[in-house]
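Human: Here is a favour to ask of a fellow structure person. Comparing notes only helps if you start from a blank page. Give me a protein, with the fold worked out from its sequence. Please set it down just below, with no commentary around it:

Assistant:
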Amino acid sequence: MATAVIGAGWSELLNQLVEELRSVDPDAVLEDAVVNADGLLRLRARLSPHARQAGNRLLREYERRAITTCELCGGGGRVYAGRVVIIRCPSCV
């Protein structure tokens, strides 16, 4: 099960991603940004065929960056596992 709730810290990360996607494909559209059941950010974009490979690399890079980015404030974060997996900095835990 996934949810579309994205914290402010990850929202800034997504804004940066969109800028980079548009540098490889001016018509790129970020279609989906969800937090999956594991608490990790999963991304999907609509890209032109010529930009698909580079765009998909960017999507995976930003998914990896999200693992070390606090989803609330955008600072340096880490995975906290409990009943629900979250990614937070020490200040936002």
Observations:
- The two ends are 23 Å apart (CA to CA).
